[in-house]
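From the shared-data thread, chain only:
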Amino acid sequence: KDRRSRASVFSRLFFLWFEPLFWIGCRRSLIKDDLATYPIPNEAASKHLLKQFNKHWEHEIKMERSGRRKAHLSCAILKCLWWRFLFGAFLSIIYVRRKFGNN
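Structure, as tokens:
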């Protein structure tokens, strides 16, 4: 299995599982063979994301054709990647609360 799937939650949260590759990249330019131990997870593969996006985009087109509303590219992207946006928002809230809260 790849490093990411074996990594703890803490390691995933702070990308510690990826750190060895960062150090290699600091010392020299990365080559294709360096990336072999870091395969792209299925949920992040372009083929998977394209399939998800097409499903949501087709729904947007159907909504427009039915006269309900205009198709919005941003809606299709958000529906495809909502969990990533949610995670980023969660981390931003934690950052803001720690930086400005309790003062």
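Helices lie at 3-6, 9-13, 19-27, 46-65, 73-100.
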